């Protein structure tokens, strides 16, 4: 039975002709979402439900001497108060997560949770919070990454540094990583020019519009249910179970519709607290965060300080490159210093390269993943230096990148050797695009930059069930954050040879499938897609067996094509094809219901590259920057639903624009966040932007049956650098400090 | 604390409720009337996810007291489709893939509808400025603006 | 909290005067509700003035315009005659917040919130607006710049509230304009704001000018030196540069999350010049 990676009739090496994949059908959850009936995290209620609220530290760093909640507990309507004392020790694996959800000995940042209440109304809960007395001993704090590394910096955690950390730096430095090959010093010695520059990037927040929300119900028997907006309800289940000391199997988690995540909903904040409150009150507890809480206490990305040194010859050839990248990841270890360092030089084929990354803790909220975690800052620094060198030699910055581009067979700066990749294709497409040749107006500049992301695979389960009337239901375990149900239905329909509208994809709760990795790393269309295709193939195998049974021939003599079982050749016998519907109708009489499922730790995700091109205009009198034109060139492997691929490109580019120009965490001298709201945490609004043009390249990923690569994250990697290169040209001065807010740009212009 | 009795028309239906004096219209809609289509993205007027119209005027329901709605007509996303017929904006949002996560979508649709009622032929720039109070973090606004412009054109053709 | 919806000015004054705890006027609520949400204010009494007779009207009076305290920005923007008379004041009001905020925000609320960065206030100052205040002792009219006394604080006494704002009759050959600087294109609070109003004679010489400046001091500034630089000139580049210098010199800003002292001081001059050019073009018709 030809059920492998080829379509019947397709010759090896020939591009597959798709019927459904590559089209733009309407998404199956669309009507729910345009009519307001889709249920997001905060849209669920339960009978007898209480409202939970969190008390948060006003101090950046303080020892918690004691907490007295007796007055709050005595308030009418208050049904439970929890503090750290209500949680057990928990597993070591989740110790930091627990401490982040509910502070133990110390409050480590402004906004750190210290207690929570559940009451019969939000108003009572708010009132109760004011009645909780926390006795703090404030401690010196540090929020800047370079300051935190100094030997005399205030220390957050004693003895956290591991063996990779050299002497002479603060204990706030948790870990040091190093990647590379060749001899950079020898390489620099050979260069016509060596340029070294230092860069800074501010912390930014994922900025999803939906605040965290959940509804928890837990009995004293440990049986629990949780409704939550998350990027991974299996992760929520496992983490909460470990924190609360219950069995994973007893906690059923259902993912709500999710109002954005971008990495920020790949961990837990409220969920264990809501469960603990529910257990204590023995009633359902709903918790939602305010926007202020989201910004103060959930995952921003790291702020960074980066030095890059690159040697280049007159012809544009890079002889050596090195970078030292310092990432603060907030109050706990685990900044994306490692991934950022790995990505820094990934777009280049380098003989001599060395990257060093530092993971540093500071008195800020624990950094959470943000779209290609760590990569945009590294690309900003590296691509700025490449640009400056290229322009210094009077070379075309795209040519210089093409000259040094990583390609199939390149040993990457972080170790592995690349298979077929699409970087050159994006650069070539950029060069050929009318945007590259379009004239620029006064005070305008054009910038380009490349970006790389690994893409992930991971644990994945899909169950594909065929109903008696021959429609298909597909259960997957990854929340649909931007149209992935549509893509799964499309791949299932493609594989089964049936119309798209005959497949309905649902996001199953944790009781229905095995373990699923969170929706992150741009893994879903790749890994869940792969599992969907394999599950469909397994179902087709059963369908063929049933037809064989009816026809009384060998199952091996039946093939599946165009939605029907057919005799594989003339020798197999002459039978009219049996459609999926026909086989489904007799499934009960031929052995029972038909289904296919597939469980895998998906590998072969296929790295992805993009090149961005942007024109900006700078007002020389005020430093204001306007983005006037933007084009994204990115390799998608195979664009399953091109409209949603374009959407990922556009969304990533615009988040990058925000990061480059105006978004930043601003801390006062007191270590408190000064801009915990959308008025002063300035994400781009519609009137700030032009249309974002996209060019989808398709260099098939050999690791996926249809060639799919993840597309979600790469799109945020190049914009910081592309915009910096553009603004630097427009302003006539190199910008090395993000965000390039008007005061900084104006000062740079005035200081030349 | 005594509650306030309010009589309104919501999406054309007379609706009465009791609310606390400091309760916002958004809380009333979501928590008392189970109209959860309007979302709370910020609660402070910055994101537009809670957009509704009060007596035909586009407002943030998070910055309106429930008590203020007495005697007013309120329209929410739940009233936008006419029975089984989607509003052209809703249809165009689907066709243009103008939503990714969809949390901003109800607010943007309500705001865009109010734009087209006031200005049936907005320029792209006018549409962008009108919608500047509706944050979308997923799409970069490109497809949203295209969907609004396309819906405007279709509605002009139909009228 | 008690919520009241009086129907007359007198009953509003009585409610405010009789309040035992903290009392607040509710107009559009776009400041008040934000402050209540964050717990910055927790009023015991909220008096909604939107149903008081006259609060929602824009009426011509002595050649000028009287704008009721509950008129929203959107309503001002839709009033063509008002837009034609005082385009700078209307555009300042319309810069406030989003379309949604415009649906509710009021001129009087912007003023009485007493934020140094309030957009409409420098424009009203430039326009020479006069505010009508009702209170236990009756009604009084006061210049707009006398309302804010420090951030978050007005000169209004207990029981008093603003019932309307009066924009005087505009002389012929006059124009006004307001510009602000914000990092984005919308949805930001002014880093600097500047309103300019000027009048020309037949020969094109500036005979009267007022310059209001926001977000560069604890309250709105009336920059007399800047006005003096314009008066008697043809508002040519030399005069405009002099005016810009006077504006920058008047700035007493702070460094904060929205901008630095140096940035605000420089940009105030830049904006003043740009706003004056628009006002000039309007005055020239
Ligand atoms: C998202 C957003 C964006 C914003 N952007 C801007 C901006 O760009 N520029 C800007 O200047 N402001 C901005 N604001 C603030 C606000 O919208 C304006 O200040 C608005 O004009 C306030 O008017 P209001 O009618 O809503 O005031 P309210 O909130 O009703 O009142 C404000 C204050 O004034 C008092 N008050 C109101 N009316 C009277 C009266 N008649 N007499 C005495 N006291 C009174 C109230 O008690 C309260 O203390 C923004 C607000 C939001 C939520
Ligand atoms: S929730 Fe009302 S504007 Fe954000
Ligand atoms: S689609 Fe997610 S915020 Fe707009």
UniProtKB/TrEMBL annotation, chain A:
Its transmembrane ranges are none
Q: Which organism is it from?
A: Hwanghaeella grinnelliae
Q: Which SMART domains match?
A: Ald_Xan_dh_C (SM01008)
Recite the lineage of the species: Bacteria, Pseudomonadati, Pseudomonadota, Alphaproteobacteria, Rhodospirillales
* One Pfam match: Ald_Xan_dh_C
Single Gene Ontology MF annotation: oxidoreductase activity
Q: What is the protein named?
A: Xanthine dehydrogenase family protein molybdopterin-binding subunit
- Domain Aldehyde oxidase/xanthine dehydrogenase a/b hammerhead per the UniProt entry, residue ranges: 35-140
Automatic annotation (TrEMBL), chain B:
Residue stretches in coiled coil: none
Span-the-membrane segments of this chain are none
The major lineage groups are: Bacteria, Pseudomonadati, Pseudomonadota, Alphaproteobacteria, Rhodospirillales
Domain 2Fe-2S ferredoxin-type: residue ranges: 4-80
Protein's UniProt name: (2Fe-2S)-binding protein
Q: Which superkingdom, per the lineage? A: Bacteria
Q: Which Gene3D superfamilies match?
A: 3.10.20.30, [2Fe-2S]-binding domain (1.10.150.120)
* Alphabetical UniProt keywords: 2Fe-2S, Iron, Iron-sulfur, Metal-binding, Oxidoreductase
Give the source species: Hwanghaeella grinnelliae
Spell out the PROSITE patterns in the cross-references: 2FE2S_FER_1 (PS00197), 2FE2S_FER_2 (PS51085)
- Kinase as UniProt keyword: no
Q: Which GO terms describe its molecular function?
A: 2 iron, 2 sulfur cluster binding; metal ion binding; oxidoreductase activity
UniProtKB/TrEMBL annotation, chain C:
Query: Which SMART domains does its entry note?
Result: CO_deh_flav_C (SM01092)
- Whether Oxidoreductase counts among this entry's keywords is yes
Q: Does the keyword Cell inner membrane apply?
A: no
One Pfam family, short name please?
Answer: CO_deh_flav_C
Which keywords does this Swiss-Prot/TrEMBL entry list? FAD, Flavoprotein, Oxidoreductase
**GO molecular function terms noted in the UniProt entry:** FAD binding; oxidoreductase activity
Residues annotated as domain FAD-binding PCMH-type: 1-172
InterPro entries membership: CO_DH_flav_C, CO_DH_flav_C_dom_sf, Diverse_Substr_Oxidored, FAD-bd_PCMH, FAD-bd_PCMH-like_sf, FAD-bd_PCMH_sub1, FAD-bd_PCMH_sub2, Mopterin_DH_FAD-bd
**PROSITE patterns noted in UniProt:** FAD_PCMH
**Record PANTHER family:** XANTHINE DEHYDROGENASE SUBUNIT C-RELATED (PTHR42659)
Source species of the chain: Hwanghaeella grinnelliae
* Protein name as annotated: Xanthine dehydrogenase family protein subunit M
């Amino acid at each position: 039975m030809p059920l492998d990676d080829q379509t019947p009739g397709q010759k090896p090496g020939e591009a597959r002709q798709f019927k459904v994949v590559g089209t733009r059908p309407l998404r199956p959850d669309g009507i729910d979402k345009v009519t307001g009936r889709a249920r997001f995290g905060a849209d669920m209620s339960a009978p007898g439900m209480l409202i939970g609220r969190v008390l948060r530290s006003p101090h950046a760093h303080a020892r918690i001497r004691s907490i007295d909640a007796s007055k709050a507990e005595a308030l009418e309507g208050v049904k439970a108060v929890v503090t750290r004392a209500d949680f057990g020790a928990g597993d070591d694996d989740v110790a930091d997560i627990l401490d982040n959800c509910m502070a133990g000995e110390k409050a480590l940042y402004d906004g750190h949770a210290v207690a929570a209440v559940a009451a019969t109304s939000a108003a009572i809960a708010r009132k109760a919070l004011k009645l909780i007395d926390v006795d703090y001993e404030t401690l010196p704090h540090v929020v800047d990454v370079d300051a935190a590394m100094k030997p005399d910096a205030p220390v957050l955690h004693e003895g956290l540094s591991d063996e990779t950390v050299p002497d002479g730096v603060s204990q706030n430095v948790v870990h040091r990583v190093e990647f590379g090959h060749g001899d950079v010093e020898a390489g620099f010695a050979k260069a016509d020019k060596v340029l070294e520059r230092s860069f800074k990037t501010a912390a930014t927040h994922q900025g999803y519009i939906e605040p965290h929300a959940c509804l928890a119900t837990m009995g004293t028997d440990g049986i629990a249910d949780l409704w939550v907006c998350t990027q991974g309800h299996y992760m929520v289940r496992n983490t909460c179970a470990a924190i609360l000391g219950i069995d994973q199997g007893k906690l059923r988690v259902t993912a709500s519709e999710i109002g954005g995540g971008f990495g920020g909903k790949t961990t837990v904040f409220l969920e264990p607290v809501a469960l603990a409150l529910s257990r204590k009150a023995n009633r359902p507890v709903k918790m939602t965060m305010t926007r202020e809480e989201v910004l103060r206490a959930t995952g921003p990305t790291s702020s960074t300080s980066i030095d890059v040194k690159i040697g280049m010859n007159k012809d544009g050839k890079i002889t050596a490159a090195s970078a030292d990248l310092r990432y603060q990841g907030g109050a706990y270890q685990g900044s994306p210093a490692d991934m950022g360092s790995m990505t820094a030089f990934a777009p280049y084929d380098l003989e001599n390269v060395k990257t060093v990354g530092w993971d540093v803790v500071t008195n800020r909220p624990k950094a959470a993943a943000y779209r290609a975690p760590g990569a945009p800052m590294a690309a900003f620094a590296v691509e700025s230096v490449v640009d400056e060198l290229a322009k210094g030699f009077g070379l075309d910055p795209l040519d210089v990148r093409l000259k040094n581009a990583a390609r199939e067979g390149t040993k990457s700066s972080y170790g592995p050797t690349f298979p077929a990749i699409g970087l050159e294709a994006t650069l070539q497409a950029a060069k050929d695009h009318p945007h590259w040749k379009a004239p620029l107006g006064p005070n305008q500049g054009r910038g380009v930059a490349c970006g790389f992301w690994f893409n992930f695979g991971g644990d994945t389960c899909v169950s594909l069930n065929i109903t008696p009337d021959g429609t298909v239901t597909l259960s997957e375990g990854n929340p649909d954050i931007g149209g992935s149900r549509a893509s799964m239905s499309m791949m299932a329909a493609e594989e089964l040879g049936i119309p798209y509208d005959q497949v309905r994809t649902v996001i199953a709760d944790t009781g229905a499938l095995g373990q699923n990795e969170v929706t992150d790393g741009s893994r879903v269309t790749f890994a869940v897609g792969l599992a969907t295709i394999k599950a469909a193939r397994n179902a087709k195998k059963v369908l063929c067996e049933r037809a064989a049974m009816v026809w009384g021939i060998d199952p091996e003599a039946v093939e599946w094509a165009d939605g029907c079982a057919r005799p594989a050749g003339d020798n197999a016998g002459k039978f009219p094809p049996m459609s999926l519907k026909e086989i489904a109708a007799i499934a009960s009489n031929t052995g029972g219901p038909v289904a296919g499922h597939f469980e895998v730790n998906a590998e072969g995700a296929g790295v992805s590259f993009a090149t961005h091109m942007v024109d900006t205009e700078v007002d020389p009198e005020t430093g204001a920057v306007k983005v006037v034109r933007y084009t994204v060139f990115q390799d998608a492997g195979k664009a399953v639903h091109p409209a949603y691929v374009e959407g990922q490109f556009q969304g990533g580019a615009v988040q990058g624009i925000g990061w480059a120009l105006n978004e930043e965490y601003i801390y006062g001298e007191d270590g408190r966040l000064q801009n915990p709201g959308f008025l002063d945490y300035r994400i781009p609004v519609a009137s700030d932007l032009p249309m974002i043009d996209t060019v989808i390249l398709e260099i098939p990923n050999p690791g996926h049956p249809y060639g799919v690569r993840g597309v979600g994250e790469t799109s945020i990697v190049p914009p910081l650098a592309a915009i910096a290169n553009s603004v630097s040209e427009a302003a006539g001065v190199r910008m090395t400090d993000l965000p390039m807010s008007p005061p900084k740009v104006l000062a740079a212009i005035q200081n030349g | 604390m005594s509650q306030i009795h309010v009589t309104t028309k919501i999406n054309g239906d007379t609706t009465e409720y009791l609310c606390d004096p400091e309760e916002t219209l958004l809380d009333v809609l979501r928590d008392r009337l189970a109209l959860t289509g309007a979302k709370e993205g910020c609660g402070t007027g910055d994101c537009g996810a809670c957009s509704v119209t009060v007596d035909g005027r586009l407002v943030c329901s998070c910055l309106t007291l429930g008590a203020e709605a007495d005697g007013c007509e309120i329209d929410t996303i739940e009233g936008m489709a006419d029975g089984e017929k989607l509003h052209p904006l809703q249809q165009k949002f689907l066709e243009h893939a103008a939503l990714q996560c969809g949390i901003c979508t109800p607010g943007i649709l309500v705001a865009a509808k109010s734009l087209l009622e006031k200005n049936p032929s907005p320029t792209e720039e006018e549409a962008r400025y009108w919608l500047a109070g509706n944050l979308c973090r997923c799409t970069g606004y490109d497809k949203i603006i295209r969907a609004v412009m396309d819906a405007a054109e279709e509605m002009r053709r139909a009228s | 909290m008690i919520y009241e919806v009086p129907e007359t000015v007198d009953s509003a004054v009585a409610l405010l005067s009789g309040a035992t705890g903290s009392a607040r006027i509710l107009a559009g609520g776009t400041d008040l509700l934000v402050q209540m949400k964050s717990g910055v204010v927790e009023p015991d009494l909220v008096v909604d003035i939107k149903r008081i007779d006259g609060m929602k009207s824009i009426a011509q009076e002595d050649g000028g315009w009287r704008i009721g305290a509950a008129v929203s920005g959107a309503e001002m923007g839709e009033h063509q005659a008002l837009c034609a008379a005082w385009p700078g004041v209307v555009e300042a009001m319309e810069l406030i917040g989003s379309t949604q905020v415009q649906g509710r925000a009021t001129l009087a609320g912007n003023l009485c919130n007493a934020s140094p960065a309030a957009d409409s206030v420098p424009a009203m100052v430039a326009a020479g607006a006069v505010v009508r205040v009702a209170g236990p002792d009756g009604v009084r009219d006061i210049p707009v710049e006398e309302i804010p006394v420090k951030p978050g604080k007005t000169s209004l006494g207990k029981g008093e509230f603003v019932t309307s704002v009066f924009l005087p009759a505009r002389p012929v050959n006059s124009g006004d304009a307001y510009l602000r600087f914000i990092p984005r294109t919308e949805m930001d609070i002014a880093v600097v704001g500047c309103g300019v109003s000027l009048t020309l004679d037949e020969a094109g010489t500036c005979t009267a000018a007022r310059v209001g400046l926001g977000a560069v001091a604890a309250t709105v500034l009336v920059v007399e030196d800047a006005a003096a630089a314009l008066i008697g000139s043809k508002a040519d580049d030399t005069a405009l540069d002099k005016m810009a210098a006077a504006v920058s010199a008047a700035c007493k800003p702070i460094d904060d999350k929205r901008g630095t002292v140096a940035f605000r001081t420089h940009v105030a001059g830049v904006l003043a010049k740009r706003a004056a050019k628009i006002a000039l073009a309007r005055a020239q018709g």
